[in-house]
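Morning. Coffee machine broken again, so started the prediction first thing and wrote up yesterday's gels while waiting. Chain of 162 residues, entered below exactly as on the submission form.
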Amino acid sequence: MKRHALLGVLAVGCGDRSVGYDALADVAGEYSVAIANGRNGCNLGGWDGPAATNVPLVVSQAAADVSATVGGGAAILLGLGYGTAEYRGRVVGRTLTLTIHGTASKTVGACAYTMKSVVRAIALRDFIEGTVSHETATNGASDCAAVACASEQRFNGNRPPR
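Came back before lunch.
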């Protein structure tokens, strides 16, 4: 699969059937994830490739803190693009927000920036769906307008029923 088509491969878990919308979802587990490319505002290479399927993902949870480690070939691609294949973040109710902050710093004039990948998802029992955004994280200098961008992917995945 193409390099950037998999950069955002990530899904996190799903809450169990007994969790209400205000309760903290149990999202830990081993998932199989599919991802499709959407808008490519950052002009990432390989974006027009086919959707990725059966991407392994291991999600760990300690209360509201969540980490999600992407496996297989997608882990290599995330490592190349961001320096890691592990997202970190939180679950609030059934809503998950996880981020990878890239390690490669760049500059344009007074603007210093890196790339980051942000997952926003909703957990529904043993299923999850959401978006992955690949976007610039800048120092806010006026020169940053030239590099501001976001590319988006949609994903869904599941884990074995609990």
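The helical segments are 72-82. Going to sketch it on the whiteboard this afternoon.
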